[in-house]
Specification:
Number of strands: 15
Shape: globular
Number of helices: 6
Helix content: 10-25%
Structural class: alpha+beta
Largest sheet: 9 strands, mixed
CATH class of one domain: Alpha Beta
CATH architecture of one domain: 2-Layer Sandwich
CATH superfamily of one domain: Pseudouridine synthase
Strand content: 25-35%
Distance between the termini: 61 Å
CATH topology of one domain: Pseudouridine synthase
Oligomer: single chain
C-alpha cells in the first residue's frame, strides 16, 4: 500500500469527487477505496458522501499497481478507427467486453491487448482501455482509450451526454406511435441478481426510440441512450411490452432465432479527446440481423 496525504485548501465538495480529481481516477474507484476503509479525513474513516472542509487532512492508502495478468490473445478484431489516443471497434455478438467471473479468456480486452500497443489504466487490470460496455450478445461500436487523459475526457462526454450512441433493435409487437421516450429508473433485480429491473428507487434511466419499419409481428426501431444503465435498452423495451427479439433473459420463449438479442450499437459520435474534432462512425448490421430482416420482409 502506498500512502498519499494532502490538505483541502479550496472547493467544498464530496470526498469521492475530491479523490477522483486529485488522484486522476474515476469516482467509482474512489468510492471503492472509501468503502474498503482506505480513506481517512482527520484520522477518521468517512463515507463517500462526506463533504470536505477547508483544512481537512486527507489520508489515502492506495494499493500498488498490479501486474497485468490478462494475457493478449490473437483474436480477430474489427478496428474501425485508430490513432494515438482512441480506438473504435465493432464488437461481434458473442464476445464479452472484459474478463469477469466465468469469462477468463477470449474477451474484447484479450483481443485489444494483442492488437493495440497502449491502453488506458484508469480502470482495474481487467478493463484496460474500456470506457463503456455493451452486452455479450449485443454487437456494435465501442470507443477505447489508449491513455488515461483520453479515457477521462471520453468518460466525461458519456457522463455529460455530449457523446451520441444510437442502437438498432428488432422488437416484438407493433407500435401505435412513431416516436417515444422511456423514463423509468433501473436497478438490480431482487428476485434474480443476474437481471436488472424497473424499480421506483432505482437509478434514473432515459431511452428514446423511433420506428424505422413495421412488420406483421415485429418492429424495427432506432434507440438513443441518454443514460447508460446495465441492460437499459433490454429492460426498458420489456417494460413497455416490446421486448427485443432473441432476448432470452427479458423476452418471451417464442421468438426469432439468432445469436442472442437483435440489438446493434450502430452509431457512435464523440469529440476527439485531444483535438476536439467531431468523430462519427456507423457500423453495418450483422449478417444474421440482415438475413432476419429479409425474411420478415
Amino acid at each position: 500500500m502506498k500512502e498519499i496525504n494532502f490538505v483541502i485548501t479550496d472547493k467544498l465538495e464530496r470526498i469521492d469527487k475530491v479523490l477522483a480529481k486529485r488522484l486522476d481516477k474515476s469516482r467509482t474507484q474512489a468510492q471503492i477505496w472509501l468503502k474498503n476503509g482506505q480513506v481517512k479525513v482527520n484520522e477518521v474513516l468517512i463515507k463517500p458522501n462526506y463533504k470536505v472542509n477547508i483544512g481537512d487532512k486527507v489520508q489515502v492508502k492506495v494499493p500498488e499497481p498490479k501486474m497485468l495478468n490478462v494475457k493478449a490473445e490473437n483474436i480477430p478484431l474489427n478496428i474501425v478507427y485508430e490513432d494515438c489516443d482512441v480506438v473504435v471497434v465493432n464488437k461481434p455478438q458473442g464476445m464479452v467486453v472484459h474478463p469477469s467471473a466465468g469469462h477468463f479468456t477470449k474477451t474484447l480486452v484479450h483481443a485489444l491487448l494483442y492488437h493495440i500497443d497502449n491502453l488506458s489504466s484508469v480502470n482495474d487490470v481487467y478493463r484496460p482501455g474500456i470506457v463503456h460496455r455493451i452486452d455479450k450478445d449485443t454487437s456494435g461500436l465501442l470507443m477505447i482509450a489508449k491513455n488515461d487523459q483520453s479515457h477521462k475526457i471520453l468518460a466525461e462526454q458519456l457522463k455529460n451526454h455530449t457523446s451520441l450512441r444510437k442502437y438498432i433493435a428488432l422488437v416484438h409487437g407493433n407500435f401505435s406511435h412513431d416516436t417515444g421516450k422511456i423514463e423509468v429508473p433501473i436497478t438490480r433485480s431482487k428476485e434474480n441478481r443476474k437481471k436488472q429491473a424497473v424499480v421506483e428507487k432505482g437509478k434514473p434511466a432515459v431511452t428514446y426510440f423511433k420506428i424505422l419499419k413495421r412488420f406483421e409481428e415485429y418492429t424495427l426501431i432506432e434507440l438513443q441512450l441518454k443514460t447508460g444503465r446495465t441492460h437499459q435498452i433490454r429492460v426498458h423495451m420489456a417494460y413497455i411490452n416490446h421486448p427485443i427479439a432473441g432476448d432470452a433473459i427479458y423476452g418471451p420463449r417464442k421468438t426469432l432465432k439468432g445469436n442472442g438479442q437483435f440489438l446493434h450499437a450502430q452509431t457512435l459520435e464523440f469529440k476527439h479527446p485531444r483535438t476536439g474534432a467531431f468523430l462519427s462512425f456507423k457500423a453495418p448490421l450483422p449478417k444474421i440481423f440482415e438475413k432476419t430482416l429479409d425474411m420478415l420482409r
